[in-house]
Design goal:
Elements: E1 2-5, H1 12-19, E2 31-32, E3 35-36, H2 42-47, E4 50-53, H3 65-71, H4 80-90, H5 92-96, H6 107-119, E5 125-129, H7 137-152, E6 156-160, H8 164-170, E7 173-178, E8 181-187, H9 188-192, H10 195-217
Family: Belongs to the ABC transporter superfamily.
Organism: Nocardioides flavescens
Protein name: ATP-binding cassette domain-containing protein
Length: about 220
């Protein structure tokens, strides 16, 4: 499980979008195993086993939970029942509300649905763009625990996250992005305890999170 943190404007979300073919890469390469996937279209990447959950607009609000999940398996309709059962096991709260409109869900439930929809295609890599953004502390913890659970099923999770400390606590590997460059890297534990990272980033990032919570509250 990989966590990418950094100050606002560092290019974290742009990095994920570039990896998923939504932003053109002008230099460097992206590899999935031994395959060069640089600048492939998003639909092709989905077929190759890459899932992406954007920060916003990540569900179809007018559709039910179950209909949203069906949309996630448009390339493999024959496996619909099998994949639905797998998602109900992983997200039992969604199963209980499967007939409810996605537009009526809480922020945490929407994030669960967005992750489940991306997992319907059985990706080997799941890209998450700030999954805890706008959630209460309790819902943030639930989201982090769920991403760890997804990772334990064998899916490589690459997560951009504003809650830097919590992200580093659960990630095996971490990267600090600053002005589009890899400023620091190491295990999550190493970065969380690195005096320089703490001094330059963790305090600032915590302030960013607090400000974001304040904006959400209004």
């Amino acid at each position: 499980m990989i966590g990418i943190i950094g100050p606002n404007g560092a290019g974290k979300s742009t990095l994920l979008k570039a990896m998923f073919g939504l932003v053109k890469i002008r230099s460097g390469n992206v590899h999935l195993g031994d395959r060069d996937i640089t600048n492939l279209r998003a639909n092709r990447l989905v077929e190759m086993g890459v899932g992406f959950v954007p920060q916003t607009n990540n569900v179809f609000p007018s559709l039910t939970i179950e209909e949203n999940l069906q949309m996630g398996l448009f390339l493999r309709p024959a496996k619909l029942r099998e994949r639905l059962d797998a998602m109900w096991d992983l997200f039992p709260n969604l199963h209980e509300r499967r007939s409810r409109s996605a537009g009526a869900l809480s922020g945490g439930e929407r994030q669960s649905l967005a992750m489940a929809r991306a997992l319907m295609m059985e990706p080997s890599v799941l890209l998450l763009d700030e999954p805890s953004a706008g959630l209460s502390p309790v819902r943030q913890d639930e989201t982090f625990l769920r991403t760890r659970k997804i990772n334990k099923t064998g899916v490589c999770v690459v997560m951009v996250e504003q809650n830097a400390r919590r992200c580093l606590q659960i990630c095996d590997r971490g990267y600090v992005l600053d002005q589009g460059r890899d400023a620091y890297s190491g295990t999550g534990r190493e970065l969380a305890n690195d005096p320089k990272v703490i001094e330059l980033y963790l305090g600032t990032l915590a302030q960013d999170v607090d400000e974001a919570k304040g904006d959400t509250a209004h």
